[in-house]
Design goal:
There is one protein chain. By secondary structure, the protein is α+β, with helices and mostly antiparallel strands. The chain is 34% helix and 24% strand. It is built from 8 helices and 14 strands. The strands form 3 sheets. A 7-stranded mixed sheet has the order 3-4-5-6-7-8-9, sandwiched between helices. Strand 10 (162-164), helix 5 and strand 11 (193-195) form a beta-alpha-beta unit. Helix 1 (5-26) packs antiparallel against helix 2 and helix 6 runs parallel beside helix 7 (222-234). The two termini are 31 Å apart.
């Protein structure tokens, strides 16, 4: 089995260098454009960060492939092959970034043979670096402290759980009614609470740290959750489709939980609305 540790270390280094661009722009006025909906935004910083990440990594690994959120938005075909591929979200939480809401992240996953080998999520404002390598655990570095291995704590009873989700960018009637009815069903279970941070990558990492017990979302994209899904798994949590089937990063559906028991109690209450797969003609 190939050892991708050098790639992981290079990715961590690139993210640390690039974070300053986001932090320096965080409090500034942004030039904002719409993509698929009034809640799907892009700024010049999103585009600049992605270009820097891809060009820097490409100079080091010219044979590798890339899937970038803004590249796909600009018309590049989304295709995950068996080749080594970097899956990049330059700013996960662009709406947060525009409004200075302090949950903004760089998310990078690295896949080989369509399997994620490592994932990096850097939460910029609070300076938290989450990362994981397949089979080697999940870690959190905070404010220049030594990396700490993460282990998901598990509450056996759903009524003691905190659930994290998102409303997302899909705003048609079917999507909105489905998302709000999902929240209603969960609140009536009951659960301790439902939260929304505005970034899928950071939200899922809350499951890895034990700050939340469940995360689910319908309508996000592979660059939002490919890295954090591995982080949760390597911390001892479980990741699946919202219908309880095997997780597929291209399906645009995900449920992460502290344990299979918690996931099994939650997923029957989650309904999905129709959304096109990431790899279906994009």
């Amino acid at each position: 089995m190939a050892d991708w540790t050098d790639c992981l270390n290079f990715g961590l280094s690139v993210v640390r260098q690039t974070k300053e661009i986001i932090l320096s722009a965080f409090d500034q006025q942004k030039s904002v454009k719409l993509k698929s909906s009034p809640a799907d935004l892009v700024t010049e910083t999103d585009q600049r960060v992605e270009k820097i990440l891809i060009s820097t990594i490409q100079n080091q690994y010219p044979e590798h492939r890339f899937i970038g959120e803004e590249s796909v938005a600009a018309g590049e075909r989304l295709q995950l092959t068996e080749s080594p591929t970097w899956i990049i979200d330059p700013i996960d939480g662009t709406v947060n970034f525009v409004h200075r809401f302090p949950f903004v992240a760089i998310s990078i996953a690295f896949a080989v043979n369509k399997q994620t080998e490592f994932g990096i999520v850097y939460s910029c404002v609070d300076d938290k670096m989450f990362y994981a390598q397949r089979g080697r655990g999940a870690f959190l570095t905070r404010r220049s402290c030594t990396s700490r291995r993460r282990k998901v704590p598990s509450y056996p009873d759903v009524d003691q759980c905190v659930v994290v989700t998102e409303i997302g960018a899909e705003r048609d009637d079917i999507a909105l009614s489905t998302m709000t009815s999902n929240i209603l069903r969960l609140l009536k279970l009951p659960v301790h609470g439902v939260r929304a941070l505005g970034t899928a990558a950071v939200s899922m990492c809350q499951v890895a740290t034990g700050a939340a017990d469940i995360y689910y979302h319908i309508g996000m994209h592979c660059w939002d959750i490919a890295a954090s899904a591995l982080i949760v798994q390597e911390a001892g949590g479980v990741v699946m489709d919202t219908d309880g089937s095997e997780f597929d990063m291209m399906s645009r559906r995900v449920l992460a939980a502290s344990s299979a028991t918690v996931a099994g109690r939650i997923y029957p209450f989650i309904r999905a609305f129709p959304c096109q797969r990431d790899d279906d003609g994009r």
